[in-house]
Automatic annotation (TrEMBL):
Residues 28-405 form the FMN hydroxy acid dehydrogenase domain. It comes from the Bacteria. This is Alpha-hydroxy acid oxidase. The keyword GTP-binding does not apply. Its cofactor is FMN. Belongs to the FMN-dependent alpha-hydroxy acid dehydrogenase family. Coiled coil: none annotated. It comes from Brevibacterium metallidurans. Keywords: Flavoprotein, FMN, Oxidoreductase. InterPro entries: Aldolase_TIM, Alpha-hydoxy_acid_DH_FMN, FMN-dep_DH, FMN_HAD, FMN_hydac_DH_AS. Gene3D superfamilies: Aldolase class I.
């Protein structure tokens, strides 16, 4: 029979520990975010719909983006046992240099429209964390200003080949002079994808006011205050900024880009050279034969060709065929540090985060980007410890199984229907 007693007041007070009240609302909301999805929800509350949907959305039916995220959920980890993981080392080497963690910040366009600190927040946070930052050709901060924000860290530059070749050549020269150590030559954007959320929202550069946007802005006055009271948007390459995003991309990009352009830019660039937007094994092999330093398996976050290959599903075959000849970087769909660990186990040398970084930026500026990095760092370290590996090099394909969403019978039935 249970013996009961009247509790002493002193014992009750020992059990009651009140959390210190955080008066800073930004710190309070960022501390409440435990996952990237938490940051996404905060970002959605704080950002006008058109700007948020530009970040959150993808092309057409958003099938590629959905599949890319789902692919990371459809895995099974296989941990080792009885290994000392009291300390894990997340440092890795990529493109001739070191990174404190196996991910960097991906290039994102029109970033100051998401939150006014834009690339400065991303570059400075990356520098503080010891990871690389990538500036987009369509970024909203000058090359030299990114260098000033991250003077001692690693800065990479993502290049689109423009219709006016001299514009692209000038950007290459400026990035080299500013000390950027790697160039990402992008091959998946001959024209802009059909981003239907943007069309439905009437999203344009600069933002155009309508009854809908005004109503949407009323509960978010801080965004408009920041936008209207800070420096005018400046782009790394565009001299004109009127029109929808799709119109701007189509007017700037050149659908005639070819391997001769790749050779020309590569000859101009003094540092490491990566090709971003690789989506087939054959193209990965061809680029490896050409001797590029790295390839980036990417479907552009699902923002270009919908139903494009899922990079994470393409990864194992590419790693087997060319992993000894070229460094492999992967992006698209990463929302958790476990996604990064799985990518490394299946053969990636490095990963890039785009939306995850922007959710943090929209949720809290520079501090929000810091929180993104902190969340991913904690998830990477915890996943490695639970897998019982203490270094990145110990991760190998046996740690991960990519599960199929269909059984063989399901696939056979689908094939029968297609006949």
């Amino acid at each position: 029979m249970v013996r009961r007693q009247i509790p002493k007041p002193a014992e009750i007070f020992e059990l009651m520990k009140f959390k210190k009240l955080e008066l800073d609302p930004k710190k309070r909301r960022l501390e409440s975010a435990l996952t990237i999805e938490d940051l996404r929800r905060i970002a959605k509350r704080r950002t006008p719909a058109a700007a948020f949907d530009y970040t959150d959305g993808a092309a057409e039916g958003e099938i590629s983006m959905t599949r890319s995220v789902q692919a990371f959920e459809d895995i099974e980890f296989h941990p080792s046992i009885l290994n000392d993981v009291s300390h894990v080392d997340t440092t890795t080497q990529i493109l001739g240099g070191s990174s404190s963690m196996p991910f960097g910040i991906a290039p994102t366009g029109f970033t100051r429209l998401m939150q006014t600190e834009g690339e400065i927040a991303g570059a400075s946070a990356a520098g503080a964390a010891g990871i690389p930052f990538t500036l987009s050709t369509l970024g909203t901060t000058a090359i030299e200003d990114v260098k000033a924000a991250n003077p001692y860290g690693r800065n990479w530059f993502q290049l689109y080949v423009m219709r006016e070749r001299e514009v692209s050549y000038g950007l290459v020269e400026r990035a080299a002079e500013a000390g950027f150590d790697s160039l990402f030559f992008t091959v998946d954007t001959p024209v802009g994808g059909a981003r239907l959320r943007d069309s439905r929202n009437g999203f344009s550069i600069p933002p155009q006011l309508s009854a809908k946007t005004v109503l949407n802005a009323i509960p978010r006055p801080w965004w408009w205050w920041d936008f209207l009271t800070t420096a005018k948007l400046e782009f790394a390459s565009l001299s004109e900024t009127g029109g929808t995003v799709g119109e701007l991309i189509n007017s700037a990009m050149d659908p005639t880009i070819d391997f001769d352009d790749l050779a020309t830019i590569r000859k101009m660039w003094p540092g490491k050279f990566a090709v971003k937007g690789v989506q087939t094994l054959d193209d990965a092999k061809r680029l490896a034969d050409l001797g590029v330093d790295a390839i980036v398996l990417s479907n552009h976050g699902g923002r270009q060709l919908d139903r494009a290959p899922v990079p994470f599903e393409l990864l194992p075959s590419v790693a087997r065929e060319v992993g000894d000849d070229v460094e492999i970087i992967l992006d698209t769909g990463i929302r958790n540090g476990a996604d990064i660990v799985a990518s490394l186990a299946l053969g990636a040398d490095f990963t890039l985060i785009g939306r995850a970084y922007l959710y943090g930026l929209m949720a809290g500026g520079r501090e929000g980007v810091d929180r993104t990095i902190e969340i991913l760092r904690d998830q990477i370290e915890r996943t490695m410890k639970l897998l019982q590996v203490s270094t990145i090099a110990e991760l190998e394909p046996g740690h991960v199984t990519q599960l199929s969403r269909f059984t063989r019978a399901d696939r056979a039935s689908i094939e029968d229907l297609g006949r």
